[in-house]
Amino acid sequence: MNALNVAEYVQTLGLQARAASARMARADAATKNRALKALARRLREAGPALAAENAKDLARAEAAGLAAPLVDRLRLTPKVIETVAQGCEQLAAMPELIGGISGLKQQPSGIRVGQMRVPLGVFGMIFESRPNVTIEAASLSIKSGNACILRGGSEAIDSNKALARLVQQALEEAGLPADAVQMVGTTDREAVGQLIAMPAYVDLIIPRGGKGLIERISREARVPVIKHLDGNCHTYVDDPCDIAMAVRVADNAKTQKYSPCNASEGLLVARGVAAEFLPRIGAVFAHKGVEMRCDAESRALLAAVPGARLADATEADWSEEYLAPIISIKVVAGVDEAIAHINRYSSHHTDAILTRDHLHAQRFLREVDSASVMVNASTRFADGFEYGLGAEIGISTDKFHARGPVGLEGLTSLKWVVLGEGEIRG
Questions:
Q1: What pTM was computed for the model?
Q2: What is the pairing mode between strands 122-127 and 147-151?
């Protein structure tokens, strides 16, 4: 497909999405929920067929020498399929947002003024790896009454096309337009450039992938962008804390899965508990083959741990998103230094404190400038499904419009509504 054809193709997708968005905006809750339930059923029924398409992507990725964490993101396991199917059902069970009026107040003039929740219209989603994102984006788009144009990475093209077909079948089954969810069928990168520069057809762009992709989209887009660049998340072990709990949570935050953006990449430990905590977490990391990049104080406390893979941390390590079995470790004086370190080096994605001190916990919640801030919980919970959003379209570290996991509300807007009985302004 040459550049001219790509431009015409993407413009056609935009025209179809805009037309479909008008029908989606007026669809009632029952119809949208039928589509979501149909999609959940079709996902479960299509397990073997999806596995066959996914195998093609995995084989190409491995032949191309794609890094193991990136190959891992491509896998459509039965557990992944069941999770997104449950996400569709969870969304179907949620109350309807669209059309709701809030804050209605009578004014001295006699008019009543409030705000109505409405769909954004059309959003474009550009993502790499993780074919499950196709279903998360599609299901949120359906529930929120939007239309969307999805452009997945070339490494997942067969999986994404198979999933998109299921979505369109579910939409048609419910009497909704198939064009409400469209997958860009070409891997030509020019399609991305066209999609992010069509304000007449696209109201919002959501990039989800590596830092290079998101930087390019943010730089070149002619429509608003919801984004996060890095997932440099931290777990801070406070003094006082439950040491056994801290070891369990810090381990989960790092090793439950290495590739997600909500895995902890930095471990900060209060000096008062470091001598007890670090050898215990160090033994866990050593057993799992996690490399520990340490400041001088933490390295001294970890030196005696059998099999520990230790290295000296550099200044760059404090800001690094590893997406691998590597973690930076630093001993800090206490909660003040921990907060200062996180606000300087984190990507403002997700940061957690493990503590028994209520005042320390409250300070951490108020003062850490991140999209998600946690007390006594693993950073791996920073996820739309785990937050009860049904699914997430992505995670935003911006402070405008949407922040943190972006679910239904992040795909809607508010418009002012005025109800009167013939009032005129004097």
A1: 0.83
A2: parallel
